Amino acid sequence: MRRRGLSTALVALNLLCVFLGVSATVYNVGTSSLPNWMPPTGSVNYAEWAKNITLRVGDSLYFKYNPNSHNVMSVNSTSFANCDNENHLQEWDDGDTTVVIEAPGMYYFICGAPMHCQKNESFSINALPALESPPPAAPPNSTAPGTDSSSVAALRQPVVLNILILCFTMLIVSSLRV
């Protein structure tokens, strides 16, 4: 009977961890087709797409593209308005980029390939605070997170880790039943 209580507690704890981690959403930028980051055609309008997204801290933007002809750049509002790819905050060029949103505020993305931003391979999007907990306050005399000077980290979703934890727990539970 004691083993059953332990295995029930382990499963409940793991399910809680998984559900907390899954609360973040991964958005395929522009479209669900792959690749999804290229100069817009009649079917893709990144500015319109971004208007329909409720992005929150902890969510991710997924860019899939040909790294030989595209990249992803995080820029400030001035660089965004001018399609300036020289003063980017961060750049990715691996063809398979996941950008985790770490702070609330406006984010600006462009493709730095020649003339791609001018062809509207760009969008701005506002990130709202996470639902679970408020973001930490900025220290005094620092730039607030999410402002034009913030950088965006390219990290993988914690969902994968939570799934691995769940699998490990299920293995433990199954061994307790033997």
UniProtKB/TrEMBL annotation:
Keyword Translocase: no
Signal peptide span: 1-24
Residues covered by the Phytocyanin domain: 25-129
Domain of life from the UniProt record: Eukaryota
Residue spans crossing the bilayer: 159-176
InterPro entries: Cupredoxin, Phytocyanin-like, Phytocyanin_dom
Pfam family, one: Cu_bind_like
Source organism: Riccia fluitans
Sorted UniProt keywords: Disulfide bond, Glycoprotein, Membrane, Signal, Transmembrane, Transmembrane helix
Protein name, UniProt field: Phytocyanin domain-containing protein
